[in-house]
Amino acid sequence: MDIKLQQVSYAYAKGTPFEKRALFDVDLTITSGTYKAIIGHTGSGKSTILQHFNALLKPTEGVVQIGDRRIEAGKKNKDLKAIRQKVGIVFQFPEHQLFEETVLKDIMFGPMNFGVSAEEAESRARDLVDLVGLPTEVLEKSPFDLSGGQMRRVAIAGVLAMQPEVIVLDEPTAGLDPRGQKEMMDMFYALHKEKGLTTILVTHSMEDAARYADEIAIMHEGRCVLTDTPRKLFSEEALLKEFRLELPRIVQFQHRLEKMIGHALPQVCLTEEELAKAVAHAIKESDRP
Amino acid sequence: MMEKMIFGRFIPGDSFIHRLDPRSKLLFVLGFIIIVFLANNTITYALLLAFTFLVILVSRIRLYFLVNGLKPVLILMIFTFLLHLFFTQEGNLLWEWRFINIYEEGLRQGIYISVRFLVLVFMTTVLTLTTSPISITDGLETLLDPFKKVKLPVHELALMMSIALRFIPTLMDETDKIMKAQMARGSDLSAGSLSQRLKAVVPLLVPLFVSAFKRAEDLATAMEVRGYRGGEGRTRYRQLKWDLEDTVALLSLVVLAGVLIYFRQ
Q1: ipTM of the predicted structure?
Q2: How close B90 gets to chain A, by Cα (Å)?
């Protein structure tokens, strides 16, 4: 299911003295089956844009096309539930949305809202608890007895239980320890690869964007200013500076290394493994007479 | 939805009214509330209405914005108007249709009560729109100072009020966020029968309470860590200053009262 934003503008509190424009003429296409990262500085409109992906916000100008539904500015839209099922959103700090008595019931909440039977919802919950890396015992516990990281996993399972075709992640690893962060990002990547889940990652982390995304869109002051593959984007340091963005740490390291040895590698490497291989390769090349 | 509601909100500005001392504004509104009850005929009500619009004009708040933001309150006003219109049975019969009888006195009372309601709501809203919550509580604390002698916990009350006011926008944001998160999980607050809608509120209220309690605890700890120990000997960064303008504002109220007393029956 493709999501297409055409000339989308959005203003909060339109028509009051508090009116604040958050998006200006954004064009953005998310192709089915891809992994797209949206990066940008704080206040660049990332969080506003992601709420357009399942029609929680309706554009004040422009059109949002979600699958075969068209959400147009100024038109009444009924029955958005079908969209909400197809596009799952994991909000920032999703653990704040937990409310049920037990973890099991909380995970079942989403699917049952969309008319899934209780048995089916429960079986999904049991599978997902395992997938997000929690022991089965937590199912009967109150979500409020869990640690912050565990609550986060439960909340994510709750969104995945709806079996969406597209998943939108808003800073899913904020506040987790480094190991938890990596586990979580790897889990989403595995889901993306294995089930072909279209994934949209909204993040501050250049490292995550570099490692996982097929394509990156840069937001700056409410506009979508650039869309390209990570390798091309992170080759343009000057351009990124303009949008107050840094290079991923690994690319910074590569630049320092290149300066030190006085030899440029053929391309920008996006992960540690890639860089290690490139360096090994370069060494072999230089050893050859 | 909630962003349109302006009751109790503050819009920074630099009008004559914005610059007044919060104490004079509080006294002004209190005085006005009392004076409103002096009005008892058409001239006096018209004067009240004119005075209110004068104040709104001076405060440079757009009337359209005020009316739009107070819509829920205005609906209540229309309801009271209709109540008086249909249920007062005095004076000449003006209109009759089946079981509905409208009397002259009913119409008069309906209009008077609505005007009274309107000027009160407008005036108090102008107060909150032009005065930051912090200055309101500062003003209130200073005004209530004499009551400390009778062991009224003035400082604590003012602190409670400022904390409550401070957290209204935070809780509103929080509600909005949780509402959206649950809507994204397919919960629907605006459809279904009454019992279904009530049930849909639970996923909203539980997280909201949890976070409110957590916030309260964090705030208490943060205050304690920074050495807060009540109002005793506490000094202030913002000093309140009574100017000539404040006296003028209160005098205008005295003039209004005089005129109302002169014209009332």
Answers
A1: 0.89
A2: 43
